[in-house]
Amino acid sequence: MTRVATVCLLLLCVLAAPFAAAPAQAQADRCPKLVARSPFLAPRAPLTLPAAYPGAREVSLTYVGHSTFLIETAGGVSVVTDYNDYVRPATVPRVATMNRAHSTHYSLNPDPGIEHVLKGWREDREAARYDLEVGDLWIGNLPTNIRDWEGGTIRNGNSIFIFRAADLCIAHLGHLHHTLTQEDLGALGRIDVVLAPVDGSYTLDVDGMVEVLKALEAPVVIPMHYFNRGTLERFLQRFASSKYVIERSASPTLVLSRETLPLTPTVMVLPGN
């Protein structure tokens, strides 16, 4: 009986193994889990700013201003974040993402040449969901809540958009108003580059944003949405006590690759606000 019981137990373990592995595999299939690594696992070269247009394993990121970035892949796909009528790049992108907070984060009249206009919210307050591939770019999102002008809550009024290209995951936090839960962090996984609003008032307060960034553990943080230099410096002073180093670029454009992610987690300040 003992031998039979042992055989049965082994058979049960073998049959159960695929089901036990399924959740881990499902997580691994998500963009960040699949392509990103912890910034503390292996040494990396210092962050560089190559002058050449990105190669097959590189992505170009340009800070246009406020919370708007132009992301360009080696395959020629372009996306503009928080596309609006006030701050726009000269080029018409193939993809535009928007958030609901106010009119500097969305447009009611986007350029008709844009192939994909992705709103980070739905009018019925249900969660907007995206799983979109455009050439060599993949786009997903995590819905979050925002405050209204009376202090109430607009459910799913913001989206953290995630862009994957060249084995890099770039997260744009949008108009984030609250810290992230463990469930949120699990859905996002590991992020290589995070574009973070650091105004400390209209979005999340400085301590809350620092908490979010430390939880994400991205090798590169790029501040945005800070209105003036004083606001930016207040965030940088608060963040200076963390394990991140602070670098400032004279160029609004950063060319990124997995090979050039920094050895030490870095806040990269690009010109503009």
UniProtKB/TrEMBL annotation:
UniProt xrefs under Gene3D superfamilies: Ribonuclease Z/Hydroxyacylglutathione hydrolase-like
The organism of origin for this protein: Ancylobacter tetraedralis
A Pfam family the protein falls into: Lactamase_B_3
Signal sequence coordinates: 1-26
Transmembrane segments: none
Keyword Signal included in the entry's annotation: yes
Swiss-Prot/TrEMBL keywords: Signal
Record-given protein name: L-ascorbate metabolism protein UlaG (Beta-lactamase superfamily)
Keyword flag Cytoplasm: no
